[in-house]
Design goal:
It contains eight helices and no strands. With 134 residues, the protein is mostly helical. The protein has two domains: 53 residues, no CATH class; 71 residues. Helix 3 packs antiparallel against helix 4 and helix 7 runs antiparallel to helix 8. The longest helix has 16 residues. It is elongated. It comes from Stutzerimonas stutzeri (strain A1501) (Pseudomonas stutzeri).
């Protein structure tokens, strides 16, 4: 409720954004995940997407399931610095699935079923992740 109200009030939103930026810089994993997501998907200005990806990576490496899922999405995007990488997406989505993210197993099953982006199709792995899916 408070965040919805903040979006309608630019001054309050800027203050909240500053607080999340400060907390992320201090190493707060949840702040890195949240602020990284905001910067990557809604950020404006030079370097917002790169900083968002950096914060998401830090949060994912610290065990945040949502950030790991988003890193998998970023790994398959055309905007990835090295192009779409199926192996990198598998690495992140496997971490997210192990941490309980509900969509990660679904995406892994789809990726293994179809293959692509440098990853060979693997029905056995696809079936494994399908069994994990909600």
């Amino acid at each position: 409720m408070a965040s919805r109200q903040a979006v309608r009030q630019p001054k309050l939103w800027r203050w909240m954004e500053g607080q999340f930026a400060r907390m992320a810089a201090l190493g707060d994993v949840k702040a890195q995940s949240f602020y990284g997501h905001i910067l990557y998907f809604r950020g404006q200005g030079f370097g917002a997407r790169q900083e968002g990806a950096r914060l998401l990576r830090l949060a994912a490496e610290a065990g945040d399931a949502k950030a790991a899922y988003q890193m998998g999405v970023i790994s398959l995007s055309e905007e990835a610095s090295h192009g779409p990488d199926g192996r990198e997406a598998v690495r992140w989505w496997a971490r997210a699935a192990d941490a309980g993210h509900p969509l990660a197993a679904v995406r892994l099953e789809q990726l293994y079923r179809a293959g692509g982006h440098g990853l060979a199709a693997d029905a056995k792995q696809a079936d494994f992740y399908k069994a994990m899916s909600p």
